[in-house]
Amino acid sequence: MKKVLLYVACAAAVVCLASCKNKKAAAAAEETSAVPAYEVVENAQVDLAGFPVDDEGYIVIFDGTSLNGWRGYGKENVPARWTIEDGCLKFTGTGAGESQSGDGGDIIFTKKFKNFEMKFDWKISKGGNSGVFYLAREVTTKKEDGTVQYEPIYISAPEYQILDNENHPDAKLGKDGNRKSASLYDMIPANPQNQNPYEQWNTGSIMVYQGTVVHAQNGENVLEYHLWTPKWTEMLQASKFSQEAWPLAFELLNNLGGDAHEGYIGFQDHGNDVWYRNIRIKILD
Q1: Which of 47, 173, 196, 217 qualifies as a cystine partner to 200, CB 3.0-4.6 A?
Q2: Where are the beta strands (DSSP E) in 94-219?
Q3: pLDDT band at residue 3, thresholds of 50, 70 and 90?
Q4: Crossing angle (nearest 10°) for helices 247-254 and 230-237
Q5: Which is nearest to 280 in space by CA: 215, 168, 225, 203?
Q6: Helix H segments across the chain?
Q7: Is 229 helix (H, G, I), strand (E, B) or coil?
């Protein structure tokens, strides 16, 4: 009888130990994937009535002479490293990658768009990196000391990659070329990859309509995908923005644009010289 009781007690102890371990593992996983408290900042938007419309019905949001409607992400003004040069919107890089300086940083056009087609020209310096964001939101969190900080724009917005494929190492990272120019960064590679070499102009376009997104480069559609679908969630989970790796990014990107499914257009400071021109947008609502 004593042996039986001993066996039962041991078995119970093993079950309890396993249960405790499972609970601890579950708690750790829950803590890892917990989304920190955040706030979506709502700022005044520009009135599009003051912008010219071209012969194709596109609103010209940068005409080569004025930065009207533009400002830094999380800032009141355009950072000093973004300037107008020979009719182009130019960022003068620091060569420090994503380590943005006080006079640099990403910029946004201060109007939220939902269904649209955006066209632009771009060229990049040798070994350069930048990006075009869309459906972006301005998001803040609080640090442990209570101060408020802006989270990076790319955790709330898809990125049309801008890159010198031949000379920037990012082109060889990711998967199947999904960090090369015109790709949906770290998720879908642009195919065909028809980029012109550094310091030569390329044309780009981004179309968003009722969840369908198309990237084009140099006159060819290079990828298509569909937002707010199980496939979109699956792609996020397979990327650097997965729920486990980056809970806040997953939360924001999985619910892209919030309930209104709208957001800002933005350009990235990645520390390198980059030029944009002929920036125009057609609302498809």
Answers
A1: 196
A2: 107-113, 116-124, 129-136, 138-142, 148-150, 159-163, 202-209, 212-217
A3: very low
A4: 160
A5: 203
A6: 2-32, 230-237, 247-254
A7: coil
- Cβ-count burial of 272 within 10 angstroms (0-12 exposed, 13-18 middle, 19+ buried)? buried
**What is the rounded CA–CA span in Å between residue 189 and residue 184?**
6
User: Which residues touch 258 (CB under 8 Å, ≥6 apart)?
Assistant: 40, 137
pTM score = 0.87
| Among 89, 126, 102, CA closest to 266 | 89
Q: What is the mean pLDDT of residues 133-141?
A: 98
Per-residue HEC secondary structure of 144-159 comes to CCCCEEECCHHHCCCE
Half-sphere exposure of 246 toward its Cβ, with a 13 Å CA cutoff?
17
Q: Among 281, 285, 273, which residue's Cα sits nearest to residue 88? A: 273
pLDDT confidence tier of residue 33, bands split at 50, 70 and 90: low
Answer yes or no: are the C-beta atoms of 157 and 263 closer than 8 Å. yes
Query: What letters, b where the CB count within 10 A reaches 16 and e where it falls short, cover 54-93?
Result: eeeebbebbbeeeeebbbbbbeeebbebbebeeebbbbbb
Q: What is the pLDDT of residues 237-279, one digit of tens each?
A: 999 999 999 999 999 999 999 999 999 999 999 999 999 999 9
- The answer to whether the beta carbons of residues 253 and 236 sit under 8 Å apart is yes
CATH class of the domain whose range is 36-283: mainly beta
CA dihedral 73, 206, 251, 227 (to 10 degrees): 160
Q: How many angstroms from the chain centroid is the CA of residue 137?
A: 10
